[in-house]
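hey so u asked for the seq, here:
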Amino acid sequence: EVQLVATGGGLVQPGGSLRLSCVASGFPFSTNCMGWFRQAPGKGREGVATIDEGTTTYLDSVKGRFTISKDTAKNTVTLQMNNLQPEDTGMYYCAPVCWIGPGAKYVFWGQGTQVTVSS
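ran it, structure tokens below
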């Protein structure tokens, strides 16, 4: 059974930082591409960052601000988010999917973690 438990969200002011973590199980984590995705209110899920065998890819709007990393010993993928902006607000999820941009699809999204950027 696939389990994806994302934590670390919260309320932060514009320009602030958050570090999201996701513990994964139920699939071969070490060999799978992992991604972080977000869903703003009223919108579909979009991929913001992926990591595949050390190669990282980012949505243009988060390049230079977000960093994805993967710890295979702990089955954990992390998203460091700096200089957060109101448009980064949304529910954030991780998944073993390599997809950047809108239209992200997966079956077992997990509960996600809420990120709210507001003054």
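The chain has a mean pLDDT of 95. The two ends are 40 Å apart (CA to CA).
lmk if thats what u needed
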